[in-house]
Every structure is written in structure tokens, then in C-alpha cells.
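Q: What does the assembled structure look like for these inputs?
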Amino acid sequence: MTDLVEEAVLTEFDRITERGGVLGAMETMYQRNKIQEESLYYETLKHSGELPIMGVNTFLNPNPAETDTEIELARSTEEEKTMQIHDLENFHKFHSKERDSMMERLREAALKNGNIFEILMESVQVCSLGQITQQLYQIGGQYRRNM
Amino acid sequence: MEYFHYMLDLLREKGSGHIQVFAGGGGVIIQSEIQELTDYGISRVYSPEDGRKLGLTGMIADMLKRSDFQVLPDKFEPHADKLVTENVQHIAHSLTWIEQYVKGSQMAPENKVVEPLEAVQKVLNKLHSQDSLVENSQAPVIGLTGTGGAGKSCLADELLRSFLEEFPEKRIAILSVDPSKRKTGGALLGDRMRMNSINDPRVYMRSLATRRSHLATSTALEGAVSLLQATGKSGGGGFDLILVETAGIGQSDSEISDFVDLSVYVMTPEFGAATQLEKIDMIDFADCIVINKFDKPGAQDALLAVGKQYKRSRNDFDATTETMPIFGVVANRFNDSGTNWFYHNLIEILIKKKSLNWKRSHEAEFAISEITELIPSDRKEYLRQIADCVRTYKKEIRKNAKTAAECGQLYGTLKQMLGETENKNSWNILQPCPIENIPETAHTVAELYNEKISKLPKSLRVQLSEFHENNQAYLGENFSFYIRNKELNISNHSISLSGLKIPKIATPKFNDWGEIASWLGLENFPGSFPFTGGVFPFKREGEDPTRMFAGEGIAERTNRRFHLLACDQPATRLSTAFDSVTLYGSNPNLRPDIFGKIGNAGVSICCLDDAKKLYSGFDLSTS
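A:
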């Protein structure tokens, strides 16, 4: 079993290298396709019933209505949500003076290909998560999905 | 829940109630919620139950059936005074109208065929009867064309981003044309998915299908462009720039250069032999040529070849790399110098060509994207190197195992020839046999043995000689070993209910040197190289409590949960689930699509203070 898995991994390494390394393979979406293919295969088996799964495609509950009972769900309350927004506003107000200069430093570091992480460690003291990500989006754009 | 309501409300508010909203999930949406959502206007929520009944293809067919209807209002006609950037809906409808009724469109009913330009002209004439449409329009049009997969969308997105940043007042429209397939008549309008910068009120983006598979440009395109140029002509907002991106399907699609002010041809360094360039019409017509993916091998050569072709086609043999509008870029790289330079020049050329009075603030220096690679070239084949390394190692092991087996056999032969008594003080196992001390009859065997044994690596010889002794360690009561300078004593056995002592480690039973050598090389004891049985000699006794996973509501609530989970436990193993707002890097907001997700399925953490609250009372700095 170990040998089998090991050999499978090594062959996969070879296939990726043939496609120009991890980045090259990502460009043709080799890895993604591979995962999608496998999950489609699994779904097909599930749908055709070739792969029996109890409660999903075999031995279904004959009286589904009876099981429709209330389950307690962990959902946040209205109060918590409002409080979170309120706290954030306070945080913004409290650090409003230092924010802009820190944002500028972050921008500069990013544009000059400097060490962003170093500035980030300082930025979090005065900037909120959203402010930092927005700033970085503005400079560098967002991930472009490859389809 | 909030999100769907919000989405539907927004759609209706913008007059787009006709857009069908579908939902689906692995059962996160419960039955009563599904009912509520469909009552509110969601077309259909696909539940796991549906998946079981319909299957994937069934669900797809159902969705398509529900989405197939006419979107234009009855008897719709574009109105010039409604064609303003503020009225996106009207622009969209007008474009659809053009697309449906122009000549050559598959969708046009036979009796209602209209020539594209004529159609627009007719509408505009109602208000501007004296003006000729084309002269009247000011908005310059940039055409972006190129082979499929050359990265046109990506480049367009970058241009867009730079344009919006440089001209904070200007508005831009993008038309993306994608090919229709001859067989199915369908088209995948995928460009919008790759464009991030279109998410701006100053951008209007529309995808069109060619409707004719062998052509890269849509018949409706000309009409659509004129319509966009006409937008805002009767007061109200208009567009300052129109970007047309066409499907790249072949080498001869210079059609686009006929009705744009400035055309850009996007290609990659991988065009084949240099003679292929001769076939590309667009090199002769384009105002700019962009070689994208300039980090690919052979990029510099491509630049040279394209440059030559450019010179040939224009009979301008004095041009240099700096003066030719040929750009090497890597559009999908952050802050790419080549892309910056290209954008700078593109606008510059456009301003000159159309004598625009745009004030520029963008600065850039001549640059062609360098080939600085994310992965250094000697690491390119790293995975193969690993695979090779493993395979070479295994080969070596097999070779050594064979030699070791032969040594073992010779050792056995020698032992039998010399007899047990003489063997006593003769020589150590796996050491060369002292030939002078043994009878002459055994010399040939001993010599052969010595020769073979010298071929075994010294480390393997040591390992082999120590093997049986090491094996013993697992047969006693306890096994002791050191981890981080701490001596651990662990019992070698677990005792079953019926009192049987079951060894935790099953040690190999074989005596053949070859078998042992191969086992040592490929498996070995747990905690020894190559660690096939694990990196530690034994599983630790007294397992730590499972990880304490929590994330709900706000930091305080999750913190309380952490304290409950960690209470009276010998060790603390915190693990946090963040809500999707946090995971996507957004701040909590009153906007309903965000509001509904705050603190659900994870904890909301948006600043350092939250993080401090989250882990307060726990010492994170000691392990």
C-alpha cells in the first residue's frame, strides 16, 4: 500500500513537471481538472447507484417528514452583529490619526516591492482588516479567476 | 437568508427582477428556509434531495429551462434621451435590441431585419437629425484582439485599473465579444469572471456573442459601438473611452481595425515558427502589438521576430525596439513594469491620434517585462528532482540488498566450512574475513566474501550488524528513547482484555541479509530513516485532548466557548473558525450581504483588539 501510494505520488510529480512545473500545470488547470474529474466520477457513481451510500441512495428514510424536527443552530444574534460594527467604528475613530500615514507606508512598501509583512505587523495596530485588504486590492488588484 | 433577500431586493430596485436567482448547498439551507426563499422570489433552491432525484444533468436542464425567456420588454426601442450612463438598464436593453434585430443575427425575426448602423442612426435621428453619427461621436474606441488564451481579458483588466486610477472622472465602456459555437449556437461569455476592475460605477461592461462562429467580430458590434458612442449625446453622462475586446480565433481577423480608432494585437511568445507571423494580418494593421506572458521561454526571441515582421510590413527598417509600438508584458503580474509602460504609451498614442485634451498624471519609463521568475530556473523541475531522488535511492537500496544477500550466503557457507568452534574467535560479523587465519580450502570463498562486503556501504554494514540487537529492544518490557532531551519510557506491549500481551511494534522476523538490508532501507523501525513507520519511535501515551474548535458570534462569545472547552483539560489546543466576512478580508458592515454573515459559521475578527479578546486568558507564547 505504501509503495503503491508512493509510486502514484511520484508519477503525479512527473506529470506536473511535464506540464512545466506547478505554475505551468496551474495555467492549464491540470490540478483543478484532476480534482473535478474525480469528484464528477464520484457523483456519477453515487447517482447511478453503483456506489451505495446508506441514507443517500439506498435505505432512504421512508418517512422523511417525521425527521423534520427543530435543531438548534449556532447563529449570531442581531445584537452581536450591531455591536461588532459599533466596536469597529470606535476602533476606526480611535486610530483615525495614525491610519493614513500607515496606509501610505503600506502602499509604498507594496509598490517598491518591499517587505509588506514587516509593515503589516505594524499596520494591524491601527488599521482594521478591511482597511488593509482594500488598500492592497487598490494597489495590486484582486485574484483573477482562470476559467 | 439576509443575503438572498438583499440580492433580490437590489435586483428589483435596479429593474432587473427578471434575473433568475438559483441557490444550492449541501444542506446548510434548511427546509423551512427553502420555502421562505422560494416564496420571496428565488427561482429554485436545489437541496440534497433534488440532487438525489434529478442528478447533476437534471439540475442543469432544469436551470436552463427556467432561464430561457425573452428579456426585452414588449416593443422596446432605444431612446436617445434615455441613453445616458446613469441609465444602465436602458443601455443594456438597447444593446440587446441591436443584437436581436440586426441583419445576420440568428435571433432576428425575418421581417424585422435592420442594418446595424441604420438602426442606431434611425433612433438617433429622431433627436439629432442633422448630425451624422460617426462624426458626432467623440469617445475613442480601442480594439483589443488576439489569439485565444493570449490574456486579452487580463490585459484589459489591467488597462482598466490603470485608466480608472489615472482619470478619476472618466467613464469607460467595455464590449467583450466571445465566439459562438457552430454546433450548439451557444457562447461562453466568460470574460466578466476574470475582470475585477469592472466593479466600479464608472465602468459599463457587456459581453456579446459573435453569433457566427467563423468570425471573430459580431455583426452587432458596429451598431453596439455607435450606440455606446451616442450615449449621453443628448445630455447626461456619456463614455470617455470604449474598449472592444474581440474573440481571438484565427490569424486573419483584422476586421476589427476597420471600426476602432486604435487597435491592439495581443499575442504570446508561443506563436510557432517566425514564418507564422507573416500570416497574422493584425501585425500589419495594429497600432500596438503586445506580447503577453513575457515570462515564458523564448520571449526575447519572439520580441525580435515580431519586431522584424513589424518593420517588414511597414517598410520602416530604421525602427528600433524603443520606437516600435511593440510591448513585452506580463499582465497577470503585480505592478508589472512592461504593462505600466504599455498603458502609458497606449493612452499617449490615443491622445495624439484623436487629439484629445486629456491631462495625464501617469508616469512610466521604457520597460519590457523582465524575466524575473517566481521560481528560479534550477528549481523549475524540483518535483522531478524529488521523484528522481527517491527512485535513485530505491535503486541503490535494491542493489545493496542484492549484495547483502550474497554476503549473507557466503558468510553462511564460510561458517559451515569452518565449523562453529573455529568461528568463535575468527572474525566479527560483516568485517573482512582474516584469510591468513583460516584453512586454505575456504580461501576462495573468503576472498569472494571480502570482495562483496567491501562493496557494501559502511553505514549499511553497521546497521546490519546492529539489527538483531536493535530488534531485541522491542521484545523487552519497555522501550526508552529521547525526545527533546527528555527520556521517555514506553511499554512495548498493550494488554488485551483476555490478558494477551500484544506487541505495539511488529518486528521483522527474517534473517536473510538481503531482506534485512532492503527493509532497513525502505521501512526501518519507526523513528528511524526513512521514517516509513513515523517520525517518532512510538505513539505518545496519554494523548492530548482533541483540538478545541470554536468560532461563533463575536470574539467574547468564542472566548467564553474556548474557556469552557479548555476547562480542566491537561493541555490547551485552540483552533479558530472565522466567519466568511473575516476570511475574505472584509470589515463588518450594515450592508445586508455582509451583515447576515457577521459571526455566522465562525467568529468575526476585524482588528487587533478583537484578536486580543478572542484569546484573552490564554497564554499563547509558551508551548
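Chain A has two domains: 2-60, 78-140.
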